[in-house]
Amino acid sequence: MRMLATAILATWAVCLWNVGFVTPSFEQRKLRGSIVARGAGPDEGAAGKKSASEGSWRRGIVGALAVTGAALSKLRPARAGQYPVQGNDDIMAPKTHGSTDRPVQEGLRWNVDWNTADRICSFNRHFAEYAGYWRSTAFLTEANREGETFYDSVTGKPLFEAPKGRTWEQFEKESKSHGWPSFRDEEVNWENVRCLPGGECVSVDGTHLGHNIPDSNGNRYCINLVSVAGKPRLIG
To answer: Rounded to whole angstroms, how far apart are CA atoms 209 and 203?
Structure first.
């Protein structure tokens, strides 16, 4: 942030210098020479220099504003509802086991309930584990606070990694406040995750994960722990 502010100030300084706020610009010097060469009167010379100065000043201001706007645009968070990768309902088309090709894995991590996981992952589009369920599991005592990877409970593909761009304490606080593990855009593995137009968050293999519930900070993916408690392995 400090480097960006310095760059913006430097840009303005250069623009002001070039338009003659500090020293005459090239156009001003050129115009002054042409006026002297053809013997223009003092009024014409003053008017010419004023016109050139105003035009150069306007161009300098416009240039500085353009650079400043481009720099500041990089600071704006992505607006809620603009997913990095979208999918369509074809992903959730019926397969051999509901919306997936097979049931969830046996021996899911953090001691989550298998029946709940299978029902939510493969036979559901709208419902979720009850709010706070994830806190009743072994997740908070067993998760890697330095950086935990969350795998698809059906396929074992990596879906989320947290925390990124924040601390574990911030991730945990937000998740506790909302009731479900909550992820931000940069914590999603978009190779294996899609968001549907209605806000449903799913894996590319048809596993229902949760929903996007944006807030003032952007997209917030509220995910069922039973959907991302898989072991890190690929099936089929």
So the answer is: 7
Q: Is residue 188 part of a domain?
A: yes
Q: pLDDT digit of tens for each residue in the chain (236 aa)?
A: 444 444 444 444 434 444 443 444 434 444 344 433 444 444 444 444 444 445 544 554 444 444 444 443 333 444 544 567 999 999 999 999 999 999 999 999 999 999 999 999 999 999 999 999 999 999 999 999 999 999 999 999 999 999 999 999 999 999 999 999 999 999 999 999 999 988 999 999 999 999 999 999 999 999 999 999 999 975 45
Distance in angstroms (rounded) separating the CA atoms of residues 221 and 188: 9
Q: Pick left, alpha or beta for residue 147 (phi over 0 → left; psi -120 to 50 → alpha; otherwise beta).
A: left
Same domain, 47 and 145: no
Query: How far is it, in rounded angstroms, from Cα 98 to Cα 119?
Result: 9
Provide the CATH number for the domain around residue 117: 2.170.150
Indicate the pTM of the whole model.
0.66
Give the end of a domain, one of 73, 106, 135: 73
